[in-house]
Amino acid sequence: MAAMATRLLILEDDDGLRASLRLVLEDEGYDVVEASTAERALESVAEGELDLMLVDLMLGGMDGFSFIQRARPLTDAPIVVVSARDGVEDIVTALEAGADDYVTKPFLVEEVKARLRALLRRPSISSTDEPRPGEVFVLDGSDGPLVFDRGAAVLARGEREIHLTNTEFRLLSVLAENAGRVLSRSSLLEHVWERGFFGDERIVDVHVRRLRKKLEREPSEPSTLVTVRGLGYRLDLR
Amino acid sequence: MRLVRAPGLSSAVTLAFALGALALSAVLALGTYFSARQLLLDQRERTAMRQAFSDAAMVRDNLLTSGAQVSDVLGSIAPPAGATIYVRRHGEWYSSSLDSSGQEATSRLQSVVADGSVAVGWSDVTDPHAVVVGIPLAAVDAEYYEVSVAEELDRTLKTLGLALAVCAALTTLAGALLGRAASRRLLTPLANVTEAAASVSAGDLSTRLADTTDPDLSALVGAFNNMVDALHDRIQQDARFAADVSHELRTPVTTLTTSLSFLQQAPDLSPRAAQAVQLMGGELERFRRALEDLLALGRLDAGADDPQFSEVGVRELVRQALLAGQRHGSMLLVDGQGGPDPVVEVDRPQMLRVLTNLFENADLHGGGLTGVRVLERGAFVDVHVEDRGPGVPADDKTRVFERFARAGGQKEGTGSGLGLSIVEQTVRNHHGDVWCTDRPGGGAVFVLRLPARTGVAP
Fold first, then answer.
1. Which domains are seen in chain A, by residue range?
2. Is there a single domain that holds both residue B317 and residue B288?
3. pTM above 0.80, yes or no
4. How many Å lie between the alpha carbon of B323 and the closest alpha carbon of chain A?
5. Which of A152, A215, B120, B307 reaches 20 to 30 Å from B73, CA-CA?
6. Is A228 on the interface with B (CB under 8 A)?
């Protein structure tokens, strides 16, 4: 059974960079779709079947931030931002809009390849339909229990299923496996994003905030995914 | 070559004031002295003449009535205190006292008196000076002279002269003090300007002189502050220009490295083409690193990279930085005291960059990294990065932290020339310090000093 090639959208208005990325990423085995404007890229998103997106922030017309905001409800495909903007606020804004990771220019294409691979890698899902012990976590046992079934990749509060992006799923998996233990930002960065030593820990904070909106009844006063000041984050099962 | 330093402004003003006061007081003192002297001399002469006329009349009358001898007449009258009477008759000199200096004392007057006129003059034969009055006594064919010593007058003039000299000296001194005070007062604003200029040249471009209402100084204050404003703008413009240029280079450099990465993977390159690609790869990598360093410095300059502090163990951080650079963890030398890992509050990625830059500096310019030590110093934690190189010349110890500065004799083009500047700037943002010293056994040590986490007992 031949695996379908991964469809990768490159949204970049610089023709040279877009063409060179295409050369390298096609060699990596990706099925590359190019777009030079956000409007064109949104059409590709609407057509579906995209597995990954590489998005520049500064574009003529609609900018990358708006594109991410509009694309996120339409697809779960991980989004990696590649941008010349390296301000903390730009990075946080892009992540909060729904991006999964970012790389600032000038980057090495090997770095981008690694980021894409990391985001595609899903924790192995059990081959049987039977939930295995250690795969189902009751995050909040109170009324309308919050249950994370890692094997089935489902988060549900009572009957209501809560949608998780790929990155949120990976983050929650790592936290749940280590429930009750404090995980430092750098170790989360390493395990979820497979970032090396120089990763920016703000990426963790933004995704924790996003995840809290889905887990917590009161995201501003978290009781499940708590911050341990100066050390990192801990998932408490109740 | 000038061996003698020109006097300072303050000394010059003091001297000018002192000389001015001296000249003024000298003129006044001399004027006073001479007019007073003239007055006193006139007065004394008048007194002497009055006395001499009455005495001369008595001598004449005595000589006329009795026909007595001059010596007898002189013996019979008592001259006033301090006065001596001389009489010349028929070429003979007679005196009321025993001394016979009459001829000398009266020599200047003799010709006038001999002509039949009264004469008054001063003699300096005696000490003190004496006023001499000569009166012709035609009736008895004699010349009468009275020489009275002006002891009182001499003393008065001496006292007056001394008093005036002391006054002149005091006035001169007062002038000098006034000059000193005035120059101090004048130079105080200049001292403020000097201090502000020093602060600006030390890099604090927010320094400004306080506004003043003094119309003489407001021009200087305004000009100085405008100059600093202009300097600040200029530096910001330069920084923005560098940042803009670097920013514009981001995408083209990325395209180049991406395309080159594709070429490097190409299976069908001839060996010569592969060699060319390899050369390009090396240079492009250096270019990319320099650009990254420039961008990092630009962010530090613009204050965009405020550190995100978290508590970090220093030894753990050093070990991580060593491993990140594919160096062996055993480079971390532990001196006897194992102890718990000292904790600092730093931005982990930024501090890893600092350590990595120091390690790379040791490899590029210091003949290789030999070891890293972590030393607890109470309120601080020091990290010593040691190399086996020739050490850094004393003159270059602070210069190495400047942008694009290379220690003398280093070959060009090994690093971006910005690594240590990034280190210094980042460490400052962490309220720490970094400097370079010599290692006792040779080689250089870069000391990174960070404030230890506060509030926890050691």
1. 7-120 (3.40.50.2300), 136-235 (1.10.10.10)
2. no
3. no
4. 9
5. B120
6. no
